Amino acid sequence: MEPVGSPLTAIYTYPRSTAPKLLPAISAMASSCKDRFPYYLLPQNSNLPWMSNTYYKPTAINQTLAPLSKSFKGMTASKKLPLIPNKPTFITRYTPDDWCRSNLTNYKEAETYQHDAECLRVDNVHMIEDKYQQTEKTQGENTKSLGIRANDIGFWKSELCLELDEMLKETNALTDVKKQLERALAETEPLLQIAQECLLQREKRMGIDRVHDDVEKELFIEVDVIRSCRERIQQCLDLVKAQLVSNRVAQHELEKDLANKQAAHHIDDKCYNLKNTSDGISYYQGVERVDATISVLESWSKFKYDNILHSQCERAASAKLRDRSKDLLVVTANEMRCQFNKVNVAFANRVAETADAKSKIQSHLVKTLQEIYQMEMNVEAIKKAMRDQGPPFRVAQTRLDERTWRPNMELCRDPAQLRLVNEVHEIDETVQSLEQRLRDTEDNLQMLFHAKSVLQYELAVKANSLLIDQEKCMGIRKTFPSIARLMGSV
């Protein structure tokens, strides 16, 4: 027999009687089982406190004789187990002590589990708080780091902006010097042509006038000076163009670096301002394993240092070349001006009186041209004044016409009617006076044109009287722009 309180085994060593088909009488049941139900009659969702389901499975099997095991080979057929009577009986599987011990065991296990659960719950709360604080601290440190990084980028962005502004100013200044050099080079071309033309024209002198005088000597010197100045200006212009290319390369690098830093500053500032409640935050699985960086802090710092240093070097070279170019312009302008003055003095000694008369005629011609311009502007002003009288004149006449439609006694010659009539007459008189003044002005303008033609004719006469020195030589020299333009452009 199995010990009391343990489940029965599935193999029996003695024959078992079949389960009765009917339940025993109610009076035969023990008082402790009156309120109990068999396991197979319990609802499916009921759970027994501590017995496993395997205990009840053998009861559902038809009880038959079990096969003999190997341990009972010596038993003879005459030694048969006594048969269990067919009368239904209740086999007690557990004792009350077992029941109490089972309950106590369950209580202790439940208390143990409750204590463990409470400890685990407290640990979980502490762990959650610690992890939250750690996460918050880490996020704050990263936010601070992003802020520092954004400030660093902002600082170097401002430095790049300052350097870029300085480079732009230097490039613009060097561009102005380049234009001055080109203008000076262009201004020297007519001067060289004039000097050569003077030499060619003086070859047309006849007789005793074909002498190697001071004018001819100074003209030869002037040609050599202009050619030397042009060569030096051209060489300096080539250097300026090459320096401008270098400046633009450095400027391009600065602009590119500045654009990158502006984009990076915008991104880092956006990341710095992101919070847990911000819009646009999302999960990006595996992004922490992506390393898209192409530089480290040292290479990043060296890159910006190199850009700024390269720009500063190019800017210093540009400033040095700019000063050199300005000095060259001043020197060449002074040389050409001095030689130009010497040639002019030599010519002036021969044609002083004729040149003075021509100068006076030119002065009067300039004044006449200015007066013609002023009179033409005055004519346009008078015509505009006449046109301006048109709208008031039409308004007054329209008012008079509208007032003729007044009914019956309302056609009154009131003060308004009289003032409108006077207004029409005044405007008409004003237009007539303006027309008369326009005719007078146009007549005066014609007289000025006549004076202009007379002065131009007299100037041509005086120019023709100067012959070769004044007409052929000094005449073309006076059409040359003043050397002060070379000095003024610096």
UniProtKB/TrEMBL annotation:
InterPro entries per record: Tektin-like (IPR048256), Tektins (IPR000435)
Alphabetically ordered keywords of this record: Cell projection, Cilium, Coiled coil, Cytoplasm, Cytoplasmic vesicle, Cytoskeleton, Flagellum, Membrane, Ubl conjugation
Keyword Translocase in record: no
Annotated protein name in UniProt: Tektin
Key word Transferase present: no
Compartments where located: Cytoplasm, Cytoskeleton, Cilium axoneme; Cytoplasm, Cytoskeleton, Flagellum axoneme; Cytoplasmic vesicle, Secretory vesicle, Acrosome outer membrane
Family: Belongs to the tektin family.
Quaternary structure (record): Microtubule inner protein component of sperm flagellar doublet microtubules. Interacts with TEKT1, TEKT2, TEKT4 and TEKT5. Interacts with CCDC38.
Topology versus the membrane: Peripheral membrane protein
Record organism: Thinocorus orbignyianus
Residue stretches in coiled coil: 424-451
Protein role: Microtubule inner protein (MIP) part of the dynein-decorated doublet microtubules (DMTs) in cilia and flagellar axoneme. Forms filamentous polymers in the walls of ciliary and flagellar microtubules. Required for normal sperm mobility.
GO annotation (BP), single: cilium assembly
One Pfam family recorded for the sequence: Tektin
Single GO cellular component term: axoneme
